[in-house]
Design goal:
By secondary structure, the protein is α/β, with parallel strands linked by helices. It has a single domain, classed as Rossmann fold (3-Layer(aba) Sandwich), CATH 3.40.50.720. Helix content is about 45%, strand content about 15%. The protein is built from 7 helices and 7 strands. It has a 7-stranded parallel sheet, sandwiched between helices. The longest helix has 29 residues. The radius of gyration is 17 Å and the shape is globular. The chain starts with 8 loop residues before the first strand and ends in a 6-residue tail after the last strand. About 45% of the residues are buried. The structure holds NADPH dihydro-nicotinamide-adenine-dinucleotide phosphate. The site of NADPH dihydro-nicotinamide-adenine-dinucleotide phosphate has 30 residues, from helix 1 and helix 4. Keywords: Oxidoreductase. Belongs to the short-chain dehydrogenases/reductases (SDR) family. This is NADP-dependent 3-hydroxy acid dehydrogenase YdfG.
Length: about 240
């Protein structure tokens, strides 16, 4: 499955749809080896089969990012196979919007499990390896919700504020061999809003999501960040559709 023109080994969480899938497709097409992960292994296998047919280098693994032990084990497996890991793209996320008085506490827990714990479990899994190999890059897909709050977004925005803070904290703590980037998309084509169960929140999203950018717009920003010279760390990128206020 591996070709000989690979420049980086890149681990992408939530690569089975939307932004993560677009990141995996673009980075594989640019000659990197991409490890696509997510819970829906059939979809990951389909994307990988397509990439390999096109002459690219990729592999798929089932991973629930809320499972810290599984995350660490898979990172170890990838490093054992390839000898190193260059980039972790922490993209997996859920946006189960609702007002606080909806009391959908299980959904709030799930967002924290995936958007926050899933992110720091990934950082915990890669950091010892990045330090040992004296290089590495963590790219977090946060959100404009890391900077904004609106009715129904309190918990989701809280998770994305946390994602921003975690990534910025890592940047401040890391030695210069480790690079850290937070990318905050605005409204982007994906399956994200389709999982909202609260009817009021789902209705609000119809207008809010009228202007969308393709997921590859976010993938291009990841490509930009990881292709900089080693001494250049792109810290943050915010990308919105021109029509989004
Ligand atoms: P999608 O719903 O299309 O993709 C979400 C991805 O996350 C899927 O691949 C899904 O895979 C994965 N995922 C969800 N839960 C888990 C889990 N427990 N373990 C592993 N993977 C999981 O939405 P997007 O592409 O839009 O979302 C990607 C990221 O972009 C998210 O962090 C989101 O918050 C962020 N974002 C999106 C915006 C948008 O407008 N689309 C705007 C701002 C930020 P699977 O179901 O197979 O596990």
């Amino acid at each position: 499955m591996t070709n000989h023109n690979v420049s980086k080994i890149i681990f992408v969480t939530g690569a089975s749809s939307g932004i993560g899938e677009a990141i995996a497709r673009r980075l594989a097409a640019e000659g990197h080896h991409v490890v696509l992960t997510g819970r829906r292994i059939e979809r990951l296998n389909e994307v990988v089969a397509e990439l390999v047919r096109a002459g690219h280098s990729a592999e798929a693994h089932a991973l629930d990012v809320a499972d810290a032990a599984a995350f660490a084990e898979l990172v170890g497996t990838v490093i054992a196979e390839h000898g190193r890991l260059d980039v972790l793209v922490g993209n997996a996320g859920q946006m189960l919007l609702s007002r606080l008085d909806s009391l959908l506490v299980d959904e709030w827990d799930r967002m924290f499990d995936v958007n926050v714990r899933g992110l720091y479990y990934g950082i915990a899994a890669v950091l010892p390896h990045f330090r040992a190999q004296e290089s590495g890059h963590v790219v977090t897909i946060a959100s404009v919700g890391a900077r904004e709050v609106s009715p129904t977004s309190a918990i989701y925005s809280a998770t994305k504020h946390a994602a921003w803070a975690l990534t910025e904290g890592l940047r401040q703590e890391s030695d210069p061999s480790i690079r850290v980037t937070t990318i905050s998309p605005g409204v982007t084509e994906s399956e994200l809003a389709g999982h909202i169960t609260d009817q009021h929140a789902a209705e609000l999203m119809v207008g809010y999501r009228a202007a969308q950018i393709p997921a590859d717009a976010i993938a291009r920003s990841v490509s930009f960040a990881i292709s900089q010279p080693a001494e250049v760390d792109v810290n943050e990128i915010i990308i919105r559709p021109t029509g989004q206020r």
